[in-house]
């Protein structure tokens, strides 16, 4: 693939990967929430707040924005805030579930193949993985403790305007 | 219209496909182990105020565009390289030197957004063809459900070695980098950050790379000029969205004091 072809591919990928010219194509809110705006621009008045996993129907596109409908509301939303796949689960819950399964023989016996595959990947645990050369899981643990909630992060972004 | 839809369907198949729980758990485990290896070589900068700023800013971006199944984790590592790294599962690390040459929050957000795009699109996982279910390299790990932890550890170690090489030696594909560049410009625009300021960072990176020939970014990323031109073109096509955006350099200086 030559360079110009790749650029065209990338541009189309970005511009169209979350949109369809077909009406009523369903997408899902990817982030924790998203604002449905009156206009396709940052800072426009908010019509409604959508929550993670809410399904919207695409009505129209305008560059990086999509006009969508949700229940009785219609408005604009950044294309990158939407995904074609509904969320599989909340952060952390997948690993937590897998850990629960791995520690419970009764559950293990009845686990689905998917969960079983997950358990297999998890069963090494940090103790097991720490035997892998040059991997510092203590430092990783300290790093993970630094996390802040996405809600707090969103408030911090909003604080720019105060 | 049907042709458009067909293209977009394909784009999605490339983009996030149909992930299942096992795929994501594989990603999280590889990402954690890879991040542990990076942190063994490059410890976090001992600057709690800086780390909290980067973490909080990153979490704010994840609020808007993050994958819900991932806890994104952001930090600054003590490295003279001018670079940033995205391990699968949302572990995003920016080097101290790159932060040192930044001048604004818009520039930092641009870098974090670029790395978030790598995570969201699972670029490392796809480059290494890792899936959590049958057929992928992790199938060996799956077989250890019966108790063979050596098989799991060996499979993981091999994959971590490969992923480490992707980040520090081979790099991702040009398409992946360009996709991430455009994602970062789009996110900057949508959040009210001035993307032109992000391009100023690229100019500063170019100076850094000229002065220090041993920087690995020259090997792991496409030429800066090409990336600069692509992003400039994208901004021209969305010029009306730039109006009113800001750099937020003052807040950046309030939190980022490395000397």
Can you tell me about this structure?
- The complex is a heterodimer of chains A (162) and B (259).
- Chain A contains seven helices and seven strands, in the order H-E-E-E-E-E-E-E-H-H-H-H-H-H.
- Chain A has 162 residues and is of the alpha+beta class.
- Chain A has a five-stranded antiparallel β-sheet with strand order 6-5-4-1-7, with no helix packed on it. Chain A has a two-stranded antiparallel sheet with strand order 2-3.
- Chain A is elongated and about 55 Å long.
- Chain B contains 13 helices and three strands.
- Chain B has a three-stranded mixed β-sheet.
- In chain B, helix 3 (48-65) packs across helix 5 (105-120), helix 5 (105-120) packs across helix 9 and helix 9 (174-191) packs across helix 12 (224-237).
- The longest helix of chain B is centred in the middle third of the chain and has 22 residues, at 149-170.
- Chain B is globular.
- Chains A and B meet through helix 1, helix 2, helix 4, helix 6 and helix 7 of A and helix 1, helix 2, helix 3, helix 8 and helix 9 of B.
Quick tags:
heterodimer, A: 162 residues, alpha+beta, two-stranded antiparallel ribbon, 7 helices, 39% helix, 23% strand, B: 259 residues, mainly alpha, 3-stranded mixed beta sheet, 13 helices, 5% strand, globular, disordered N terminus
- Euclidean distance between termini CA atoms of chain B: 57 Å
Mean pLDDT of chain A: 71
Helix content of chain A: 25-40%
Q: What is the number of helical segments of chain B per DSSP (H or I, 4+ residues)?
A: 13
Detail the topology: elements first, then pairings.
The complex is a heterodimer of chains A (162) and B (259).
Chain A: H1 3-16, E1 25-29, E2 33-37, E3 46-51, E4 55-62, E5 65-70, E6 73-78, E7 82-83, H2 93-102, H3 105-110, H4 113-122, H5 125-129, H6 137-145, H7 150-158
Antiparallel strand pairs in A: 1-4, 1-7, 2-3, 4-5, 5-6
Helix pairs in contact in A: 2-4
Chain B: H1 2-15, H2 21-41, H3 48-65, E1 73-77, E2 84-87, E3 91-95, H4 96-101, H5 105-120, H6 123-127, H7 139-142, H8 149-170, H9 174-191, H10 195-211, H11 217-220, H12 224-237, H13 249-255
Parallel strand pairs in B: 1-3
Antiparallel strand pairs in B: 2-3
């Amino acid at each position: 693939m030559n360079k110009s072809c790749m650029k065209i591919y990338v541009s189309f990928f970005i511009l169209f990967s979350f949109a369809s010219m077909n009406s009523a194509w369903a997408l899902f809110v990817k982030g924790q929430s998203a604002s449905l705006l009156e206009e396709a621009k940052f800072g426009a008045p908010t019509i409604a707040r959508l929550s993670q996993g809410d399904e919207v129907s695409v009505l129209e596109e305008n560059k990086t924005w999509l006009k969508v409908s949700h229940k009785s509301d219609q408005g604009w939303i950044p294309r990158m805030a939407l995904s074609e796949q509904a969320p599989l689960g909340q952060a952390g819950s997948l690993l937590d579930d897998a850990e629960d399964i791995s520690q419970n023989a009764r559950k293990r016996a009845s686990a689905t193949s998917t969960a079983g595959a997950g358990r297999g990947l998890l069963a090494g645990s940090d103790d097991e993985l720490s035997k892998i050369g040059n991997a510092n899981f203590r430092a990783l643990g300290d790093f993970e403790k630094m996390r802040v909630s996405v809600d707090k992060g969103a408030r911090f972004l909003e604080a720019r305007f105060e | 219209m049907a042709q458009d839809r067909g293209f977009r369907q394909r784009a999605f198949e490339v983009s996030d496909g149909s992930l299942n729980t096992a795929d994501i758990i594989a990603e999280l485990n590889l990402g954690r182990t890879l991040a542990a290896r990076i942190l063994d070589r490059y410890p976090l900068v001992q600057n709690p105020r800086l780390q909290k700023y980067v973490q909080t800013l990153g979490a704010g971006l994840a609020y808007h565009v993050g994958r819900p199944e991932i806890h994104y984790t952001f930090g600054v590592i003590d490295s003279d390289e001018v670079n940033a790294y995205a391990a699968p599962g949302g572990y995003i690390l920016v080097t101290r030197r790159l932060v040192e040459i930044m001048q604004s929050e818009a520039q930092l957000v641009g870098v974090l957004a670029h790395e978030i795009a790598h995570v969201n699109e699972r670029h490392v996982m796809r480059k290494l063809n890792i899936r959590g279910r049958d057929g992928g390299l992790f199938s060996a790990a799956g077989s250890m459900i019966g108790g063979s932890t050596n098989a799991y550890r060996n499979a993981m170690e091999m994959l971590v070695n490969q992923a480490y090489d992707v980040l520090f030696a081979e790099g991702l594909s040009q398409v992946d980098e360009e996709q991430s560049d455009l994602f970062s410009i789009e996110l900057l625009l949508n959040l009210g950050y001035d993307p032109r300021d992000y391009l100023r960072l690229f100019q500063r990176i170019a100076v850094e790379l000229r002065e220090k020939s041993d920087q690995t970014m020259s090997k792991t990323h496409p030429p800066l000029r090409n990336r600069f031109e692509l992003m400039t073109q994208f901004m021209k096509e969305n010029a009306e969205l730039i109006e009113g955006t800001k750099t937020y350099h003052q807040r950046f200086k309030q939190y980022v004091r490395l000397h």
